[in-house]
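Bumping my old thread because nobody answered last time. Still need a sequence for this structure:
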């Protein structure tokens, strides 16, 4: 059975279908990414009869249209948004949305004598040989009157050439554009695969893209919900854009949603700046207990997960659940409290968190637990904090994480979050993990390793000081300036048989250090620079750092999980030093986790 059909549609018919919302363009209220040159080139291609590529639509059963009725087959445009928007601008004369969410016109000019297209400029506007805005021809009540006006301004023009070329330009309205319509019974994964194979650039289309497209088809409410997601994500990284949105998007500004995210205009935190795919995933977990974005598309389409049949009566309820979840997600109190929980675990900047999915699930878990009015806030924070760190250590949210998410949500609903978390810890964070697997995982050169970053988080959470620092903490160096220092210096190791970066750049050979201390150590081996530390402890005369007490030195080494015999480590002892340091780092992480 064919999974699609191919049709041809005239430009004017396409624009009419978009106007009547028979073809939904989810990107219509997003900033137009094409520049005017690409719009010009599109019109030139249509004028010359060149192919401009197929549009791809996906039939959406049960979509909510203006007037409150439900369309049996509204088509969602999943490839060709920019071309359609360009046609609306150049042919219909409609404005596009710029980067500041302001409506602007893109005007394409045409010279009927030379058959050249150009972006309208002040110079071209003053030149009567040019038709300043071709949309005026397409929307003129009479082409005869339009041509007559042109000849009045250009009496010396070649009448036959100009009339033929203007007629050819006007024929763009009837130019045929191919449409590949995918069947409505295809799942998101199949549609995505078809899209990738058809799209010449091989650009993947994610399930989150489909979800965003589907959300936007539900009339004004759907468009504003999609904007709520888009604007929340945008303001999280660009708070200054709030004024542009408020001023230029009156539809959204007049809704209740803008005030829900107004707090972001004063927000500078960047620990968790979710993208729209992240928000879709969190909303799926909070509103539907579903981990796959494609499942959200099915829910919003009214598809019964048991029978796989579409029931239009399910659609309004699905949008109610989505809206409820989104309003919880964007709430200032919830978002800021969640960030405080993550920071209290020692993860104080975005660079420490390599897994966005770990944040996504932890936030969804926090919001789900807030629905339990009997749970104490302290217990809620404890569970979320431990779950987040557990997921960092076990890579729980990598690979086929969506199925894991749904399983986790089912188990949490069944036995409770605390009990289920304990089950996971007992099965995965065993003595074997702490004593064998974790030290082995620390055998890496990647400072982005979740195990190394969790070690640094453990130091932050315990207020540990930098290597050989008396007062400057690891947290302060994270936030200001500090160096990742080779405990056994790189140059020394290179000179003594360890030329491979895989040897000297082991994370077990790294420690956060004040820049001044790092410079003072230079390329000297531990036997030399630790001798300076021991001498200043004896004499009180500072030479390296500010530690002048033996107990303070031992505490500092313990805080940095560095063996106490560091002062005697040479190149010959380097492998043994790494082995012992990994064991100490793993022990530090274990104590930290158990205290969360």
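Sorry it took so long. Here it is:
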């Amino acid at each position: 059975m064919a999974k699609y059909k191919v049709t041809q549609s005239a430009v004017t018919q396409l624009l009419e279908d978009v106007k009547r919302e028979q073809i939904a363009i989810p990107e219509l209220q997003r900033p137009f990414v094409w520049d005017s040159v690409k719009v010009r080139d599109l019109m030139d291609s249509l004028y010359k009869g060149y192919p401009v590529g197929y549009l791809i639509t996906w039939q959406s059963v049960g979509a909510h249209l203006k007037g409150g009725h439900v369309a049996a087959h509204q088509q969602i445009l999943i490839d060709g948004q920019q071309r359609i928007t360009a046609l609306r601008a150049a042919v219909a004369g409609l404005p596009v949305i710029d980067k500041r969410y302001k409506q602007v016109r893109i005007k394409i000019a045409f010279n009927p004598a030379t058959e050249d297209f150009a972006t309208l400029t002040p110079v071209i506007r003053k030149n009567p040989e040019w038709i300043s805005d071709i949309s005026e021809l397409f929307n003129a009540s009479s082409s005869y009157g339009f041509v007559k006006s042109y000849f009045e301004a250009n009496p010396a023009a070649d009448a036959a050439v100009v009339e033929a070329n203007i007629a050819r330009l006007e024929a763009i309205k009837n130019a045929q554009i191919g449409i590949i319509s995918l069947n409505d019974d295809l799942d998101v994964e199949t549609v995505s695969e078809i899209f990738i194979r058809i799209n010449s650039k091989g650009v993947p289309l994610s399930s989150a893209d489909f979800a965003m497209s589907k959300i936007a088809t539900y009339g004004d409410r759907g468009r504003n919900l999609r904007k709520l997601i888009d604007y929340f994500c945008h303001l999280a990284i660009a708070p200054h854009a709030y004024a542009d949105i408020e001023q230029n998007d009156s539809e959204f500004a007049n809704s209740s949603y803008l005030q829900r995210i107004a707090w972001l205009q004063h927000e500078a935190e960047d620990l968790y700046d979710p993208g729209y795919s992240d928000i879709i995933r969190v909303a799926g977990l909070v509103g539907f207990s579903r981990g796959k974005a494609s499942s959200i598309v099915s829910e919003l389409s009214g598809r019964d997960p048991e029978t796989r049949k579409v029931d239009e009566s399910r659609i309004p309820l699905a949008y109610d659940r989505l809206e409820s979840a989104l309003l919880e997600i964007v709430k200032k109190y919830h978002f800021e409290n969640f960030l405080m929980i993550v920071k209290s675990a020692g993860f104080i900047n975005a660079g420490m968190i390599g897994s966005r999915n770990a944040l996504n699930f932890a936030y969804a878990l926090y919001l789900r637990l807030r629905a339990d009015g009997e749970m104490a806030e302290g217990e809620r924070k404890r569970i979320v904090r431990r779950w987040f760190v557990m997921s960092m250590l076990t890579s729980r949210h990598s690979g086929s994480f969506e199925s894991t998410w749904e399983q986790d949500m089912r188990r949490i609903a069944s036995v409770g979050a605390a009990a289920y978390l304990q089950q996971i810890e007992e099965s995965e964070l065993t003595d074997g993990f702490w004593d064998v697997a974790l030290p082995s995982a620390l055998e890496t050169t990647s400072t982005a390793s979740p195990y190394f970053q969790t070690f640094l988080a453990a130091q932050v959470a315990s207020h540990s000081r930098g290597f050989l620092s008396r007062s400057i903490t690891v947290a302060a160096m994270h936030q200001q300036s500090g160096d990742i220092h080779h405990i056994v210096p790189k140059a020394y190791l290179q000179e003594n048989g360890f030329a491979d970066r895989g040897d000297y750049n082991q994370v077990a050979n790294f420690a956060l250090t004040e820049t001044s201390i790092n410079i003072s150590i230079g390329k000297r081996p531990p036997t030399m620079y630790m001798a300076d530390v021991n001498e200043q402890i004896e004499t009180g005369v500072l030479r390296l750092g500010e530690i002048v007490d033996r107990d303070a030195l031992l505490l500092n080494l313990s805080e940095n999980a560095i063996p106490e015999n560091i002062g005697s480590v040479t190149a010959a002892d380097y492998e043994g030093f790494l082995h012992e340091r990994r064991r100490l780092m793993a022990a530090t992480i274990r104590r930290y986790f158990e205290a969360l």
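The CA atoms of residues 194 and 214 lie 18 Å apart. Let me know if any region looks off to you.
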